[in-house]
Amino acid sequence: MRNSADVVIIGGGISGCSVAYNLAKKGVKNIVVLEKRFICGGSTGACGAGVRMQWGTEMNCLFSKYSIEFFEHANETLEYDGDIEFKQKGYLLIADTDREIEQFKKNIEVQHACGIPSRMVSLDEARSIVPHLNTSILKGAAFCEKDGFLNPFHTTDAYYRAARRLGVEFLHPVTVIGLTTSGGRISGVVTDKGVIHTNCVINAAGGASKQICDMVGISVPVISERHQILVTEPVEPMQEPMVMSFGLNLYVQQSPHGSFIMGRGCDAEPRDGRVTSSHEFLSEMAKTITRTLPPIGKLRVVRQWAGLYNITPDRQPIYEKSADVNGFYMCIGFSGHGFMFGPVTGVVMSEMILGETPTIDASKLSLGRFGRGEMVFEPSVV
Amino acid sequence: MENTIICRCSDVTLLRVRQLIADGYTSMDEIKRITRLGMGSCQGKTCSLLIMRELAAAGFPPATQTPQTTRPPAVGVKLELIAKEAENNEKQR
Q1: Do residue A230 and residue A300 come from a single domain?
Q2: Boundaries of domain holding B31
Q3: Best interface-test mutation with B: which of A85, A290, A293, A299 has the largest number of B CBs within 10 A?
């Protein structure tokens, strides 16, 4: 293994691959990405694959709008010989309480100010968009036709291959076991395969981001919580948009190859890094989907899996150039939305590292916001 | 080779698998994520041994491989049956 690099990125998910690509495109040489398992082997590869602009905070609206506009042309931009399978069939957000309808209306005001084409829809219209929706338990819905979902493996692969063509070196399986500093500056990365001397390290480690920060004595307020998903057998196309509900605790999409992919969260989920499966999730998911979209209950579940939400107190990411350790950067705490913000992460971090004028203002997302109490709370997360 | 289907659930050919191995995708997990091989209703029960053989032939023997994670359920089950059973269990509690 090489023993020095100009930049070392820890994590081979969407964030690490996007940062690597953006840095290499700007002319940075000797970039190494270290991945514990394999490319897309962590939370990116376990995610629900959706990308939506229907958020409650301006920052999340703008980030996801940027990402969606990138994904629309990503096959060409990244010169990918495969297909990221971006399907813009919309997100139908459904609500079963009046309180949530009020939240939707507030969110839509924020979205419209950002130029996002979202709108409230009647239950009749919701049923015309998703005919198998059980509207008898619902109060209303919101819809944005430009939202959608795409293949996380292929999207990460597109970034990975583009970065590789630009000279980025990807090393896996390599586990980072320590970081060294000298005079307040990053000096190296200690791995299970040897030491790499470097003055620039980017923490894009997803579920393990806190452990990486601990290695340089930086305390970050993130937890990694297990979130589970399941997938059914493939069937003929019957549902175009992602259907999501914060109150009912559900998101479900029919993937391009015909299977339904669905997930939900639970406060009792373990936070010790495990990504095992539980029967409690299977039961709760089955009950929720059968009640909300009854025909999907007729389908067989073929597999369930899990990934980690790396969650911050305000459920927005941390984009940070460390003030305490020179040369240490982090893009962490995506709170379940790291995949859809991948294009933004690469741009924000590469500009931050090179000291360029930011094209996307992410200054409100520095680590210091938690100490100062300047958090921007995102209300709309499953 | 281009007509030999190695994964019957996801229609993946032997040629595709060999191209990916040659391009540096040298484990079951990496090939699975690009092709959906092993994600179908058989969950890799049919194709994984064939893939392991291909990997071994290319210089990546099973001893160097991490097997893919086996996930529940063991066979496909209708969601509404799971929901009904969960509700029955709750009533008995």
Answers
A1: yes
A2: 5-92
A3: A290
Q: In what order do the strands lie in the sheet with A194-197?
A: A176-182, A185-191, A194-197
DSSP per-residue string spanning A298-334: GSEEEEEEEEEEEE-TTSS-EEEE-SSSBTEEEEE--
Contact A279 B87 (CB under 8 A): no
Q: Does A370 touch chain B (CB under 8 A)?
A: no
Asked if the Cβ–Cβ distance from B78 to A298 is below 8 Å, we say yes
Q: Contacts of residue A300 in chain B, CB cutoff 8 Å?
A: 41, 76-79
B10 pLDDT above the threshold of 80 = yes
List the domain range (segments joined by +) for residue A42: 7-46+153-222+314-372
Q: How many domains does chain A have?
A: 2
What is the average pLDDT value for chain A, to the nearest integer?
97
B26, B19, A16, A44 alpha-carbon torsion, rounded to 10°: -80
CA distance B35 to chain A (A): 9
> Would you say residue A286 lies in a domain?
yes
Structure ipTM: 0.94
A114 with A231, same domain: the answer is yes
Q: Are residues A218 and A234 in the same domain?
A: no
The domain that holds B38 is classified in CATH as 1.10.10
Choose one of A309, A340, A358: the last residue of a domain.
A309
**Nearest CA to A150 among A261, A270, A15?**
A261
Overall domain count for chain B: 1
Residue appearing with tokens 């291959």: A161
In this prediction, residue A380 carries a pLDDT of: 86
Question: Which of A267, A294, A309 represents a domain boundary (last residue)?
Answer: A309
Instruction: Determine what percent of chain A is predicted with pLDDT higher than 90.
Output: 97
Quick one: average pLDDT of A222-226?
A: 98
Which amino acid makes up residue A165? R
Chains A and B form CB pairs within 8 A to the count of: 85
Between helices A279-292 and B79-92, what is the axis angle to 10°?
Answer: 110
Residue of B nearest to A82 (CA): B34
Measured between beta carbons, the chain B residues lying within 8 angstroms of A234 are 40
Q: Estimate to the nearest angstrom the gap between the alpha carbon of A198 and the chain centroid.
A: 28
Q: Is residue A81 part of a domain?
A: no
Task: Please report which confidence band the pLDDT of residue B40 belongs to, taking 50, 70 and 90 as the band edges.
Answer: confident
Q: Is A232 on the interface with B (CB under 8 A)?
A: yes
Model pLDDT, residue B46: 87
Closest Cα in chain A, distance from residue B14 (Å): 18
Residue B80 Cα, gap to closest chain A Cα (Å)? 4
Predicted pLDDT of residue A137: 97
